[in-house]
Design a protein that fits this description.
By secondary structure, this protein is of the alpha+beta class. Helices cover about 20% and strands about 25% of the residues.
């Protein structure tokens, strides 16, 4: 029996996202969290790399784009911090385990436990159920959404950052390693916002692109994020071990985590590579060390 049903496929096609319970067992979730605890315990972050991660437009340019650390992280495992976790001497003012916004962007390639989950039979089955002929893995992230300080992610479309021609070839898989609730910052979507049938905004209104070599900032935005009707967003809570499939053009966001509970997530993006052009202007580029690996393994 397929993990993903025909009805799930139709929901994804219609809404641009679908929540599927039970991708991972509770134990598998705990193992991924424990491994990340070990990775963070061992991290040694140079002071110049203590970059604050944000999704506000101007701050994105300043923190993500300006930082070579970010733009060269596609084939590495690197650390991105929440605001306000360092003092003016760049020393931690919160426990190290509570300091991070995310770790990215190549856990799927270099950490065996994450690689195993990314290529699992269930994940491959989802891609096959959706008719993907030759999907490749673009990037992966561990997102912490720390209690009390986990930052807001403003409304956006993933294709802003991961642009293809034609559009519609990128999908995120967002796996909850603990319950994601309205209280601790679950995702919210505008159903159908990926589709020209239901929305004039099916294409993207903003792109993050690399600037010409030798110029700063290292990335810039073309266009502006549109204003969205808050009432159109629908919450998508997920139980521990569940996964949200996210179409590259569906509009989604998450609120700050003001609760006492973290909201750890392992997420990665895949792309149908058959008859698809990955934009050379995207911040993320395959490298000799790490070409985008195929999802399907023998």
């Amino acid at each position: 029996m397929d993990f993903m049903t025909d009805r799930d496929v139709q929901t994804y096609v219609d809404d641009g996202y679908v929540v599927l319970d039970g991708l991972l067992t509770s134990q598998e979730c705990d193992e991924l969290r424990q491994k990340m605890t070990e990775i963070v315990d061992q991290m040694d972050v140079p002071e110049h790399c203590r970059t604050t991660f944000s999704t506000y437009h101007d701050e994105q340019l300043k923190t993500q784009g300006n930082a070579d650390y970010f733009i060269t992280s596609g084939d590495k495992i690197r650390f991105f911090f929440e605001k306000g976790v360092f003092d003016d001497k760049a020393e931690f003012i919160v426990p190290k385990q509570r300091s991070l916004n995310k770790v990215g962007h190549a856990l799927h390639a270099y950490e065996p436990l994450y690689k195993k989950v990314t290529h699992s039979p269930k994940v491959q089955g989802i891609a096959k159920k959706l008719g993907l002929a030759n999907p490749v893995i673009l990037q992966s992230m561990y997102i912490f959404k720390q209690p009390g300080i986990g930052g807001e992610v403003t409304p956006h479309q993933d294709a802003t950052f991961l642009y293809t021609e034609p559009l519609g070839r990128v999908m995120g898989m967002w796996i909850a390693l603990e319950d994601a609730t309205v209280n601790n910052g679950c995702l919210w979507f505008i159903p159908g916002s990926h589709s020209s049938k239901l929305s004039i905004n099916c294409c993207i209104s903003r792109r993050m692109v690399r600037t010409p070599k030798g110029t700063y900032p290292l990335t810039d935005f073309i266009g502006k994020e549109q204003a969205y009707d808050e009432e159109k967003f629908i919450a998508a809570p997920v139980k521990k071990g569940g996964v949200v499939l996210i179409h590259g053009q569906v509009v989604h966001r998450s609120a700050e985590n003001n609760s006492e509970d973290s909201r750890h997530v392992y997420t990665f993006h895949i792309m149908e590579s058959q008859d698809t052009c990955w934009s050379p202007d995207n911040w993320l580029q395959p490298t000799e060390e790490l070409p985008f690996p195929p999802l399907y393994t023998k």
